[in-house]
Amino acid sequence: MAVPVKVMHGLLAENDRIARHNREHFDRHGVVAINLMSSPGAGKTALLEASIEALRGELDVAVIVGDLETDNDARRIRARGVPALQITTGAACHLDAAMIHDALHHTPLEGLDILFIENVGNLVCPASFDLGQHRNAVLLSVTEGDDKPAKYPVMFRAADAMLVTKTDLLPCMEDFSEQRASAALRQLGNAAPVLPLSARRGGGMDAWLDWLRAAKRERRA
Amino acid sequence: MHELAIGRALLDQVVVVAAQRRARAVTGITLQIGPLSGIEPALLRAAYEQLRIDTVAEHARLVITSMPVRIRCDACGTESNAAANRLVCARCGSAHTILLGGDEMLIESVDLIFG
Ligand SMILES: Nc1nc2c(ncn2[C@@H]2O[C@H](COP(=O)(O)OP(=O)(O)OP(=O)(O)O)[C@@H](O)[C@H]2O)c(=O)[nH]1
Ligand SMILES: [Zn+2]
Ligand SMILES: [Zn+2]
Ligand SMILES: [Zn+2]
Question: What single string gives the DSSP state of each residue in A26-84?
Fold first, then answer.
């Protein structure tokens, strides 16, 4: 005779425990950790490159990059003189808290202001895993369509900011409406700011940089 | 396919629960999964079929209870069911809502055999 036993544990309880531990690491060093998530190629690395240049001399940053195979992204970041650690996930489609914890052993947090985590390009899997980050920035490039928040509600509901990227391409994208993208985000009950920007042609970067500065200030307080 | 990682986390926990209670086998596992958890039940089930082999839960039946998305409106207080991508108040249309349920990814219970 089988005996039913109540459990009521989160399926990802172990991941969440390590994520809390990661967050303690960050907090102890006064570092704000920003998790960048998007579809493949939405412009995460380009945004990091532009942000590194804009923040040079003001805030010290480091990057942890998750990628399926190559270390191209980490090399692009290092070329800017910023520490970048590559997590090669192989077949995995997301980063988890244990991978970040391992990476932290190779990423000195002393003196750091912002740790960017560039998640694997994927609008599904990364949304389920807490890494210990303080903020989620979800990128939506204008070439992807403005209905992405409705199609990937789990990801966009978790966004603390929705970055509409590659806005320099808007003149060629007659059917992308930033208003419709915002409306789709609001339909998820998410009041997060919508920040249109182009990492290539400059426009809109200031609002994003201010959002980062504010996130950093709130952590220090 | 993060369901493989989630399936592994599931079995790790079930194995621990069974060992703590000194159970001989697990015959059933019941989960609560909401659409806003990001877990696709069919994919999790497929992963589970592979992963349970050679564990104490080898013959356990996996029961997945789908949880409804429930919201409460900040503006008018109405509680209602909602679609995963339309979390607005059913009464007044406000998008200022609180999620009451629908993002569950829980192990609700396990059925254990002793002796
Ligand atoms: N026109 C334009 N192109 C951009 C912009 N940002 C990125 N791109 C281009 O988009 C492509 C992908 O950019 P990445 O920065 O590598 O995208 P990613 O999100 O890091 O990609 P993965 O890491 O592979 O998911 C590259 O060809 C970039 O040059 C932008 O603001 N404007
Ligand atoms: Zn990249
Ligand atoms: Zn996946
Ligand atoms: Zn209402």
Answer: HHHTT-EEEEEE-STTSSHHHHHHHHHHHHTTT--EEEEEEESS--HHHHHHHTTT--E
